[in-house]
Amino acid sequence: MKISYLGPKGTFTKMAVDALFPDEKAYSYATIPQCMDAVANGEMDYCVVPVENTIEGTVPITMDYLIHQVKLPIIGEIVIPIRQHLLTNRKLALHDIEAVYSHSHAIAQCHQFLHTQLPQAATHATSSTGTAAEMVAGMEEPAAAIGNELAAKEFGLTILREDIHDYANNHTRFFVLAKQETNVPATIGSGDQRKTSLYVTLPHDYAGALHQVLAAFAWRKINMSKIESRPMKTGLGNYFFIMDVSCEAEDILFQGVQKELAALGCNLTVLGSYPIHAYKEKAGANL
């Protein structure tokens, strides 16, 4: 099997890949769309992409590209604990650092530390935390990257400050995508819980429209763990709704929801019905 992920080495996505596919070959790509395209065009069998963070919420490019550009079913999910460190290519005092590089989400997750401890440093967004670490490793000027311990090891950087994220309960959720709906590969194992992700479009905007959609789930006692509106990109005020529910798409109650929403003129599209995998940190790991 071949797996694509947001690289280079040293990203949190690579941690997710290592947990899910410990014995398979993984190939890094510069952007999330490139990871998905590699599966869509048959270069890769699976891809692992970040979809949601505790602090910053949804990763918009992942959901927008998944819904508007490629049609890859979600076949699995894993949640990785996120520890952000300040990485430098040599020992520096904080006041010497002129620039900080990282993914925009990582920068936002460490806003308070940057605001109070590095007010003089300019921040620069990169495509991933691993890319930021790789860039800083090759710089001569006093700069830093925000990333994990894996990135520090991969690129020979010094961890100047540990755990600089603003909130301790920092986790990122990752999707496993495939070209077709398939059983979860044996190397991943089986998850204890299952979830279904979907999106719903309304026939038109009218009073109580969203309430009717939610009621179709509520009276059947189907638990909804997430709902989020996203622009349809067809005009201001036009939105669709992304939802996660705690049941399988084959469940008779869920099929009842589909029929009820169809009768209301709504369009329900299932993005995937998949297992949730628990991340098990390796003994002695400090990630």
From the structure above, extract its key features.
D-Maltodextrin-Binding Protein, domain 2; single chain; alpha/beta; 10-stranded mixed β-sheet; 5-stranded mixed β-sheet; 287 residues; disordered C terminus; 27% helix; Alpha-Beta Plaits
In CATH terms, the superfamily of the largest domain is: Periplasmic binding protein-like II
Structural class: alpha/beta
- Helical percent range? 25-40%
Helix-strand pattern: EHEHEEHEEEHHEHEHEEEHEEHE
Count of individual helical segments: 9
Shape: globular
| Sheet with most strands | 10 strands, mixed
| Share of residues in strands | 25-35%
EC number: 4.2.1.51
GO molecular function, one term: prephenate dehydratase activity
Domain Prephenate dehydratase: 2-179
Domain ACT: 198-275
Question: Please, could you describe this protein's structure?
Answer:
The protein is α/β, with parallel strands linked by helices. It has three domains: 2-80 and 170-180, Periplasmic binding protein-like II (D-Maltodextrin-Binding Protein, domain 2, 3-Layer(aba) Sandwich); 85-161, Periplasmic binding protein-like II (D-Maltodextrin-Binding Protein, domain 2, 3-Layer(aba) Sandwich); 193-275, 2-Layer Sandwich (Alpha-Beta Plaits). Helices cover 27% and strands 33% of the residues. It has nine helices and 15 strands. It has helices at 12-20, 32-40, 60-68, 104-109, 111-117, 129-137, 149-155, 209-218, 252-263, and strands at 2-6, 25-29, 46-53, 57-58, 74-81, 85-88, 99-103, 122-126, 143-147, 158-161, 171-178, 193-201, 224-231, 239-245, 267-277. Strands 1, 2, 3, 4, 5, 11, 12, 13, 14 and 15 form a ten-stranded mixed β-sheet that branches. Helix 1 links the parallel strand 1 (2-6) and strand 2 (25-29). The protein is globular and about 65 Å long.
